[in-house]
Amino acid sequence: MKILHLATQDVGGGGADASHRLHRAMQASGIDSRMLVLRKLGDDPSVTDMSSRLSPVERLGRLGHEVRRRWLRRRYRPSPYFYVESAGLVPVSAMMRRLPFAPDAIIAHWISGFADGGTLRELSARTGAPALWYLLDMAPLTGGCHYSFGCEGYRAACGQCPQLAAGRGEGDLSRRQWRDKAAALAPAEITGVAASSWLRARLDQSSVFRHKRHETILLGVDVHTFRRGSAADARRRLGLPDDRLVVFFGASSLHEERKGIRQLLEALHLLHGMLGTADPALRDRILVVTAGKAANAAEIDIPFEHRHIGFLEGDAQLVLAYQAADLFVNPSVEDAGPMMINEALLCGTPVVSFEMGVAADLVHTGETGYRARLRDAGDMADGIRRILALPGEELEAMRARCRAMGEDRCDPSVQVGAFAALCRDLIQTSRSVA
Fold first, then answer.
1. CA torsion 182→198→221→147, rounded to 10°?
2. Spatial contact of 92 and 122, defined as CB atoms under 8 Å apart
3. DSSP-derived pairing of the beta strands 286-293 and 190-194
4. Per-residue model confidence (pLDDT) at position 145
5. Which residues are within 8 A (CB) of 313 and not within 5 positions of it... i.e. 6 or more apart?
6. Are the CB atoms for 290 and 249 separated by under 8 Å?
7. Over 90: is that where the pLDDT of 337 sits?
């Protein structure tokens, strides 16, 4: 079976890295897998770059559309979570010239600025290969937002978009982009695949994916890299004390709104007050460790002793942080993942999370951590307290369950097997219809 992956780039971001990991995992399983990307940033010979292969006319066309896209951003002043779509995508004719083989199935990942639903429809028609779209956020479902923050416009028709600071109205930019997506996807046989049950629920409600097949396949994580290890050794290597209860939180940016830093700080303050009278000894043992890009991390108002260990370069450093922690806290309030939950569990680290993203699939209260009510800082504080107060043998049993859950649901072989079975079914169906 020949699988073609489409992605804006192969490395250098969560979505890009996830697409390349799936591609490599498929190759390891014996599938003939190749990637076609707009920008190739890595050195994998099975990844084909498009940006360097465009004709002068195609380059000029993309430049003109980029100028228009920037003008629209100034006109509507969207939030950081709203993407102004580019009409200057790579033509399917150019992709056809660079196809590394005749694919049996096509899997699109994060393809903004490279391709869209119309591209997938045409490429599928010209190659005869069924198309799948692996969703890691809500962008393919909406008129532009990656996350809707409670807005349900995508269930009918976007418009009056709360993420536009100017020019908002029934026929605003979100409505126009939604209309373009709906027109492109309506006649297309594209299967939507969600990376979590939270995202699957939104896929099921989406007007642009209505009447299409929907599936859920969790992200795979290298179970040999992300594994249990000595907490004492990990703490020594990170310069952390061995006699404290470590609560770990990490994000690429500690101040990103959807990652829930405000809710986390509220939960920590509530926990500090809760333990001040009930268990001051436990309170004094807690050390909060944060990682990520934050120039002013030391100024974050955390009531417990706090260490910021900076941006963790590579998986090896991230693994040490999970292994050093007694629990990983995920306060995201809008998130299809994050993949850090999958990674933490594989390292045997219990997770306290809001009921958001992949937590609904992997974080089970009392089994692998604690799943708090969304945005309820008090419930999150109670969850952190419960895990940290566990006797040693109960915490060890929970650690073992975390690892087992990770192996059962997040092993790349599970992800590859699910995609292979789905692709075979779609290929067989398309051939029987033809």
1. 60
2. yes
3. unpaired
4. 94
5. none
6. yes
7. no
